[in-house]
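Suppose you are handed only these lines of text.
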Amino acid sequence: MGDEMDLFNLAGLVMKNAYTPYSNFKVGVAILSTTGNLYKGCNVENAAYPQGLCAESGAISAMIAGGCFKIREILIRSDAKKLIVPCGGCRQKIREFSYKETIVHLADSTGIKKTLSFEKLLPFSFDNSYLENKGKRSS
Ligand code: THU
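From them, the structure of the protein bound to tetrahydrodeoxyuridine can be written out as follows.
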């Protein structure tokens, strides 16, 4: 419960920094890694629209840069009226660093509105088990 509120508040703080002059749709993401660290990210748009980055990408990059490779919990927050759901591309990005049991929280300004396992969010997903080279890390 404490963890959830930490994630909610952290996502709210970073969401304020989202750079969204084009959509004005601000997203904040907070990650709790399996190593117990917190990471955050916000969306960063670009005048060349396709170059914009989702908040999930930023948070995942921060986690990897911090030396962690697995997500225990991820919270995605937008204060829009309609509850945020991660886009398809982000679901796949989260997949790379999640377990089926990884917990996904979806939140708005008033709190966490939905909590589900990653498997529920992206069933029947593609991962490195389909590849001959399962993806070797150099570290
Ligand atoms: N966005 C995210 O950051 N994450 C999502 O999962 C959905 C969409 C951002 C991208 C863009 O800056 C804005 O929300 C509107 O699409």
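What can we learn from it? The longest strand covers residues 71-77. Helices lie at 2-15, 55-65, 88-96, 118-121.
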